[in-house]
């Protein structure tokens, strides 16, 4: 009985710690999502300014690649790996534009582009980084919630003895 009480105390302390961890992760995830949202809004604003400066037909979907466009590779890719606990982790990999297969998307809109278009591109890159961080926080949060659920089952088994 004493051993069960000690185990129950350890489980309760661990549950308390994990609950605080989950709240911290939730707060971090909300902040990251807000940062990403603000960056996306800023990028859209700069795109609108660019469209105003260059004209409505100069910045539109007509500049985007189509099926008949030449093949190209992305400048940034998202990689998935597993950490020591088997949890998916995401990270960005910047590819070096060392050959003609890599095209800077800003060149789709011409070679002399307004500074607002570059600002928009940088804001979208920042938003992507925040989204990747939010995805990593989400996977950690899911793992913590799974562990909380598991410990609650063990706690209920001990209490029902």
From TrEMBL:
- Source taxon at top rank: Eukaryota
Q: Please name the InterPro entries in this protein's record.
A: Vma22/CCDC115 (IPR040357)
One BP annotation, GO? vacuolar proton-transporting V-type ATPase complex assembly
Gene Ontology molecular function, alphabetical? unfolded protein binding
* Name of the protein in its database record: Vacuolar ATPase assembly protein VMA22
- The gene is LOC115888869
């Amino acid at each position: 009985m004493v051993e069960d009480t000690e185990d129950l105390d350890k489980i309760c302390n661990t549950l308390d710690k994990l609950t605080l961890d989950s709240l911290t992760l939730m707060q971090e995830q909300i902040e990251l999502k807000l940062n990403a949202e603000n960056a996306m809004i800023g990028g859209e604003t700069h795109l609108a300014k660019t469209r105003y400066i260059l004209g409505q037909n100069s910045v539109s979907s007509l500049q985007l690649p189509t099926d008949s466009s030449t093949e190209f590779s992305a400048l940034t890719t998202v990689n998935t790996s597993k950490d020591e606990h088997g949890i998916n982790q995401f990270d960005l990999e910047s590819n070096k534009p060392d050959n003609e297969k890599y095209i800077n998307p800003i060149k789709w809109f011409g070679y002399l582009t307004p500074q607002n278009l570059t600002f928009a591109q940088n804001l979208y890159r920042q938003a992507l980084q925040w989204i990747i961080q939010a995805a990593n926080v989400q996977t950690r949060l899911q793992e913590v919630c799974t562990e909380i659920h598991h410990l609650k089952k063990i706690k209920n088994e001990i209490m029902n003895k």
